[in-house]
Specification:
Structural class: mainly beta
CATH architecture of the largest domain: Distorted Sandwich
Number of strands: 39
Radius of gyration: 26 Å
Number of helices: 3
């Protein structure tokens, strides 16, 4: 990731950082900022430790609870709204807070029970480096929220409730008067898609550059709220475990650094990005759980064969202590994942977001584990199976189905959504785009797929497959063929227990349901259309878009 020429930033510009965007953004270096007249150092005002970075940033940390109580950039206060500060979770409460200086670094340490949190400043930088070490469940979630006072970065993006008029679900999904929906959950992005989040306005950019998420849960495709904004102010998040649509148990230990970065309106420097940032200056600071570069290893794979080159492939490493991932090169599948803590990991190759290979790899400190070419067996990719017909391709996501893209940044009731009802005809050419990405018991239950069979096909039993990516309230598909044959109700697979389909995420646990349909279920008239009706079975959920539902990956009928 690297920077290039300047890009003008208009007032009140909404920006979410991606690795691709970062390559062309104007990047002021993370170290050499324009110095102010003030000297680098810290003081004690009685209630807070006050840190002047010697650039354009002065911040304060409460001596009683570790909250970030002030964030002044170029003389303007950005921190706080509604009487609340910036902090871990919703505030830690009474804590032991200490400060020390080591050369060009100032470190503030916060101890709250078993949790440790750290703020670091570097001389001449407009950045605050943060680490959080959560040892157990005594603090419910693992997040840091930067609260920004009202009016600094007003916008009307999907995650902004500034101009909304009414609540339509829970207390966090809103509708505007024009029928569009807004929510803090509607970020559009997976973890793998962004390096930084924030806003830019009036020649000032305020960002959180995320950490590598090695102690987070959910993998590279996890979706969570990244920021919010309303009439009272806005928030930027680093979320490592939130309990929202989680597919894994939470991990414990030190996570960071993640960075609060101010700029002159441009993107933060790519030198701060996860995978790029180096922190040898922190090696001797005594941060609990800190492991420097020398205590980490790397995994490199020479290639992956058996790929479908129409898709991007990702390689993930995960165990109970840590997670990492890297992109496979499109030409040959080469990958390299660095900064890995020593240990044995499950290695998973994903086609899109569908796991098509798993293995095991052991990483040692200071070394590189080199893997020979990984071969994906043909049977591991369900798209390789011959099919009588198929709706969508198998890639672990609902991408391509009706409303799929919109659902990562809007509520299903949004005025921009196409009708959730409507049946599908195989051979029409619009099978995938006409099929809804989500099915709900109380919205579009019993959607019909029409298809013809040859005489030979109608004389044989067939396997029907329906792939899903998540479910709400244990919703799972039950099918009826030609109104006469009804499948059993399948057992529900393990899925997250929280909202998903209505708050911007289809990411749960991919699962394939299979149904053995007997020959007696088919019509013998080859000119007639067979009908497949898909219902959502579940005794849970409520009504409408909060009734039991599921997200679809692909549907096919095998010979």
């Amino acid at each position: 990731m690297s920077g290039s020429g300047n890009r003008p930033v208009r007032r009140r510009t909404f920006v979410l950082g991606t690795a691709a965007a970062a390559g062309s953004a104007a990047l002021a270096g993370p170290l050499a900022q324009t110095a102010s007249a003030a000297a680098f150092g810290w003081s004690d005002d009685g209630s807070n430790y006050v840190v002047d970075t010697g650039a354009n940033l002065v911040f304060k940390v409460s001596k009683s609870n570790g909250d970030l109580t002030s964030l002044v950039y170029r003389g303007t206060e950005y921190q706080g709204y509604g009487g609340m500060n910036s902090h871990v979770e919703s505030g830690l409460g009474s804590s032991t807070v200490t400060i020390s200086q080591s050369g060009s670094t100032i470190l503030i340490s916060v101890t709250h029970g078993t949790l440790r949190h750290y703020y670091a400043a570097r001389s001449g930088e407009n950045n605050v480096y943060l680490w959080t070490n959560k040892a157990d469940t005594s603090v419910s979630a693992t997040r840091y929220i930067v609260r920004v006072n009202a009016g600094k970065f007003a916008n009307d993006e999907p995650d902004s409730g500034t101009y909304t008029t009414s609540t339509i679900e829970a207390s966090d999904v809103y509708a505007k008067s024009d029928g569009q929906t807004r929510s803090k959950h509607y970020s559009k992005l997976r973890v793998i898609d962004y390096d930084y989040i924030g806003w830019s306005s009036g020649g000032v950019g305020l960002w959180i550059v995320r950490s590598n998420h090695e102690k987070a849960s959910g993998g590279p495709f996890y979706r969570s709220l990244l920021r919010h904004q309303g009439p009272g102010g806005g928030g930027l998040y680093e979320i490592l475990y939130y309990g929202q649509n989680q597919t894994e148990a939470q991990r414990f230990g030190l996570q960071g650094p993640y960075v609060i970065a101010f700029t002159d309106g441009g993107a933060p420097s790519s030198a701060l990005f996860p995978g790029t940032l180096t922190t040898s200056w922190a090696d001797s600071l005594g941060i609990a759980g800190y492991v420097g570069a020398s205590g980490r290893g790397r995994v490199a794979g020479v290639g992956i064969s058996g790929r479908n080159t129409s898709y991007a492939y990702t390689v993930g490493l995960a165990n109970s202590a840590a997670q990492y991932w890297g992109s496979a090169r499109s030409s040959d599948g080469y990958f390299s994942i660095g900064g890995v803590l020593p240990g044995t990991y499950t290695l998973t190759v994903f086609k899109g977001e569908l796991a098509v290979h798993t293995g095991s790899v052991t990483v040692s400190a200071g070394g590189t584990t080199t893997l020979n070419t990984i071969t994906i067996p043909s049977s591991n990719d369900p798209s390789n199976a011959s099919a009588i017909w198929r709706i969508n391709d198998w890639n672990g996501t609902p991408s391509g189905f009706k409303n799929a893209d919109l659902m990562t940044y809007a509520h299903p009731s949004d005025v921009r959504a196409a009708s959730w009802t409507g049946n599908v005809v195989i051979g029409s050419g619009s099978e995938t785009s006409a099929f809804p990405c989500y099915l709900w018991q109380d919205v579009n239950d019993g959607i019909i797929v029409y298809f013809r069979l040859t005489a030979a096909q109608a004389a044989a039993a067939h396997t029907l497959r329906i792939g899903v990516t998540t479910a709400y309230a244990n919703g799972r598909p039950q099918v009826v063929v030609n109104g006469t044959w009804t499948s059993a109700v399948p057992s529900p697979p393990t899925q997250p227990g929280t909202r998903s389909l209505t708050n911007g995420s289809y990411r749960g646990n991919n699962h394939t349901f299979t149904y053995s349909v007997p020959a007696s279920a088919w019509l013998t008239d080859t000119s007639a259309y067979n009908t497949l009706q898909i219902y959502v079975a579940s005794g849970s959920g409520t009504t409408g878009f909060l009734s039991a539902g599921t997200s679809i990956d692909a549907i096919d009928l095998l010979p």
